[in-house]
Design brief:
The protein is an alpha/beta fold. It has 8 helices and 12 strands. The strands form 3 sheets. The chain has a 6-stranded antiparallel beta sheet, covered by helices on one side.
Length: 220
Amino acid sequence: MSREKTFKVAILWRGDAEARQSATPQNNRFHRIFEELAAVGIDAEPAVYDEAFAGEVREQLLSADGVLVWVDPIQRGKTRAELDALLRDVATHGPWVSAHPDVILKMGVKEVLYRTKHLGWGCDTHLYRTVAEFGAAFPSRLQSSGPRVIKQNRGNDGLGVWKVEQVATRTGAAYTVRILHAQRGSIPEDLPLQEFMARCEPYFAWGGSTSRFSRDCPTA
């Protein structure tokens, strides 16, 4: 009589080498997920990830039937650029990956607010795919439409989300703006518009061609 297959799932989160060595199903914030999977007969194991030992993690994921990923787009100054490439590679070899990076780029990024702006929750939303587009269109839009909210495509915890409003005009046409970052504890800051826009340029630097943009809409 054949035994029913036991499926193995790797639960992946970011951490250092020490965290990877010491991780168990019980000593982390995902312990309830491990418990629920075990209750239905699924063998779950920790898969702590960092770019420094990505090859080791890849081999672990390839031995699993599925991967549950719990990694923010930006964490400790690191992005998911290398991790997403690794997950795409793993998925091509058979393991089920949730959420697959390509699914995230379609549904879990700010661009979806632009693509669905014609629906009931939409508003005056604009998309900037390149630094050049941002530089060409945003200053005049800010001047004509009033305060705007800028959001980078992939972020979390308020990272890369800014309220921007014009507060003064210098000699020449160099605008001064007041900005407020959405991160907790941030305070308003006045600076030249071009300086703020330069601060936003890194938002276009990762995430693939479909997500290299900032999105803006009016403030509430």
